[in-house]
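[Meeting: bench + compute handoff]

Bench side (C.D.) handed over the final construct sequence. Compute side (W.E.) agreed to return the predicted structure before the next meeting so the bench team could plan truncations. Sequence as handed over:
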Amino acid sequence: MKLYTRTGDEGKTSVIGGRLFKDDIRVEAYGTTDELNSFIGQAVTQLDQELFADIVGELEKIQHELFDCGGDLAMVKVSDDRPYKAKQEIVDFLEERIDEYIKEAPELERFILPGGSPAAATLHICRTVTRRAERLTTRLQQESQTNPIVLKYLNRLSDYFFAVARVVNARLNVRDVEYERSALVFRNGKRKEDKRDTK
């Protein structure tokens, strides 16, 4: 089996249901989930397999889910014989884990900078790449048909990476790096309510 096919030499790639230019928003969206998957793999290699056995297991689970999401994003047309793979249950799982990790990490009062331990820093990279994937998927969803669960999943996944990065630092007894000009923006670990939204 050859790794190269030459079929993309003119700037197009195959998706599920056709061919698109490689800079098409759909290709950008699922390509960014692939980029994210690679950073997750890097994070796994930086985590002690015993101390972080739960997190490593979850990250590997997420890698498979991102493959599913990438497949859904690459699908130009959905059909009965090829349905979407990402389901609501993967969003629900992330919410459950976020709620637990918020309890484990020290109470948050100020904005923090990406960093602390190497693994936490990589998880913050995962968070920001997830946000980019979310922005691209938002654009795609406005222009074409796609699985709405993927957008919800990416939105929740960035919060998951933030929560997990803080837990990793906490378990390693490494302090989060607070943004030095940050006001007190969190109450009981949650973002303070914006007065503009209380009407």
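W.E. noted at the follow-up: The two ends are 62 Å apart (CA to CA). C.D. will use this when planning the next construct.
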